[in-house]
């Protein structure tokens, strides 16, 4: 992708690292090594039903969360970009409507959080507006769990990239791989809310004029040249349909719930189960 295209997409909220989607992986994520000193500083909260949240130190922000069954504990990617303490995490399936829409550039309405107080020995999970009180494990039980658990990378595999719709309520959604190795792996979904269909990809073309995602049923064209605002057009059977561009940042809950693209997938956050 050209640098100018990337800048345009970032400015309009069409492509951003803070809008991750999470898909259930075919295999367990890669392991991560955590030294003994970091493990010694961990606290663990539980619901008493084999769901555990480990709260560990982080070298750049205050905390790093891990979530799992006590045997496998995966990193919870906060997507705070250094602006949050590490106990908040992006999970757009849950919304807190009254929260700040622009806290250091982040829309906190779609962030959930682990509320941990070491002095009060208290722990709770907030998913959107819903809150659940958790139990803080004893020092001995925490040591046993973190000592035997396998710590892994976040299971996220996809991130939203672009969204548009026509005037009849048909949506056009593009996501891509969430890592440096997979970021050029695009998928296109087309359809009504809750009934979007994954399109068979034929080709992706990118140049100074924009991008074209060719599928078996048509071409989704993103045009950015000579304009401060990108344009989407769906070309099928030789007939173009101009689309309304919908910024990803303003439609995260729509993408992760109503559209139905990720229905049934685990996001790798405590809100999967608690």
Notes on the protein architecture:
A hairpin with a 3-residue loop joins strand 3 (63-68) and strand 4 (72-75). Residues 1-18 and 21-25 have low confidence and may be disordered. The longest helix has 10 residues, at 139-148. The chain has 274 residues and is mainly beta. The chain contains four helices and 18 strands. The protein has two domains: 3-21 and 157-270, no CATH class; 36-152. 39% of the residues are buried. Helices cover 11% and strands 36% of the residues. A nine-stranded mixed β-sheet has the order 5-6-7-8-1-2-3-4-9. A nine-stranded antiparallel β-sheet has the order 13-12-11-10-18-17-16-15-14, with no helix packed on it.
Short description:
This protein is 11% helix and 36% strand.
The neighbouring-strand order within the major sheet is 5-6-7-8-1-2-3-4-9
Overall body shape: elongated
Beta-strand percentage range: 35-45%
Q: Let me know the average pLDDT.
A: 89
> Would you report the number of β strands?
18
Number of domains: 2
First-residue to last-residue Cα separation: 39 Å
Q: What's the alpha carbon Rg, rounded to whole Å?
A: 20 Å
Biggest beta sheet summary: 9 strands, mixed
Summary keywords:
4 helices; 9-stranded antiparallel β-sheet; 9-stranded mixed β-sheet; disordered N terminus; 36% strand; mainly beta
Topology:
Blueprint: H1 3-11, H2 36-40, E1 43-46, E2 52-57, E3 63-68, E4 72-75, E5 88-90, E6 111-117, E7 122-127, E8 130-136, H3 139-148, E9 150-152, E10 158-165, E11 171-177, E12 186-191, E13 197-198, E14 201-207, E15 210-215, E16 219-223, E17 231-236, E18 239-245, H4 252-258
Parallel strand pairs: 4-9
Antiparallel strand pairs: 1-2, 1-8, 2-3, 3-4, 5-6, 6-7, 7-8, 10-11, 10-18, 11-12, 12-13, 14-15, 15-16, 16-17, 17-18
């Amino acid at each position: 992708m050209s640098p100018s295209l990337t800048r345009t997409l970032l400015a309009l909220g069409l492509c951003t690292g803070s809008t991750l989607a999470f898909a259930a992986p075919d295999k367990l994520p890669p392991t991560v090594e955590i030294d003994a000193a970091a493990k010694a500083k961990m606290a663990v909260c539980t619901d008493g039903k084999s769901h555990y949240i480990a709260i560990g130190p982080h070298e750049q922000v205050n905390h790093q969360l891990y979530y799992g069954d006590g045997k496998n504990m995966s990193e919870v990617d906060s997507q705070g970009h250094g602006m949050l303490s590490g106990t908040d995490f992006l999970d757009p399936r849950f919304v807190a409507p009254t929260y700040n829409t622009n806290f250091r550039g982040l829309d906190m309405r779609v962030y959930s959080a682990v509320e941990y107080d070491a002095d009060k020995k208290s722990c709770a999970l907030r998913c959107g507006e819903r809150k659940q009180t958790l139990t803080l494990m004893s020092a001995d039980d925490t040591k046993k769990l973190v000592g035997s658990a396998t710590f892994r990378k976040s299971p996220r595999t996809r991130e939203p990239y672009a969204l548009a719709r026509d005037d009849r309520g048909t949506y056009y959604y593009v996501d891509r791989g969430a890592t440096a190795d997979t970021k050029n792996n695009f998928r296109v979904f087309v359809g009504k809310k809750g009934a979007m269909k994954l399109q068979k990809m034929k080709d992706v073309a990118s140049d100074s004029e924009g991008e074209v995602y060719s599928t078996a049923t048509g071409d989704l064209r993103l045009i950015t040249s000579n304009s401060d605002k990108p344009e989407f057009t769906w070309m099928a059977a030789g007939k173009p349909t101009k689309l309304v561009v919908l910024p990803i940042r303003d439609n995260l809950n729509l993408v992760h719930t109503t559209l139905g693209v990720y229905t049934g997938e685990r996001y790798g956050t405590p809100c999967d189960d608690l």
